[in-house]
Amino acid sequence: MKTTLVLLIGLFSLPVLALDDTIANREQQAARYIAAKPTKEMLEEIFEPIIKEECPPEGRAKARELLFKYTDWEAINNGMKDSYIRIYTADELKALADFYESPGGRSAVKKQGVVYADIQPILKLEISRAIVKAKLGKLNQK
User: Fold this and answer.
1) Helix, coil or strand: residue 49
2) End-to-end Cα separation, the chain, in angstroms
3) Nearest of 35, 59, 64 to residue 47 by alpha carbon
4) How far, in Å, CA of 72 to CA of 16, rounded?
5) What local confidence, expressed as pLDDT, does residue 3 receive?
6) Is the pLDDT of residue 94 over 70?
């Protein structure tokens, strides 16, 4: 009986643990999230496959250098933070920050670029197939 009572009290107290969904709490949690997963690191992961796709091997280092030199990271960072605050609740931002601050989260995130690179050939193949099917579909409609 005591165990059941403790469990019920615990379950009903969970909503009390939720953060108030205020702008101040969203700002605080967004700052934690960005500190745990900096925008620049995230965009580097996105830019890298584009650089490899668009630039010849001998020009990649220079393209990377120029891209990162002339990108206004503060503007992007502020835009990301504003977007996070607008879109996510304080609890959602807290959950994201908690994940990215955890050892498992940091380890998983480091592997994400490898996953994207690994799946890229499959994505290209399936996109090419979809384009061919769409073109054939248009031909059959004529």
Assistant:
1) helix
2) 73
3) 64
4) 40
5) 55
6) yes
Copy the structure tokens of residue 107.
Answer: 């380890």
Reported as a single tens digit per residue, the pLDDT across 119-137 is 889 988 999 999 898 988 8
The runs of H, that is alpha helices, within the chain are 2-17, 23-36, 39-54, 60-70, 73-87, 90-101, 103-141
Which two tokens mark 80? 């990301």
CA distance 54 to 97: 33
Written as six digits, the tokens of 88 are 């996510």
Q: Beta-carbon neighbour count of residue 41 at 10 Å? A: 11
Size of the chain in residues: 142
pTM of the model: 0.65
Nearest to 48 by CA among 26, 69, 63: 63
The encoded tokens of residue 19 equal 């953060």
Half-sphere exposure of 65 (CA within 13 A, CB side): 5
Of 104 and 139, the structure prediction assigns the larger pLDDT to: 104
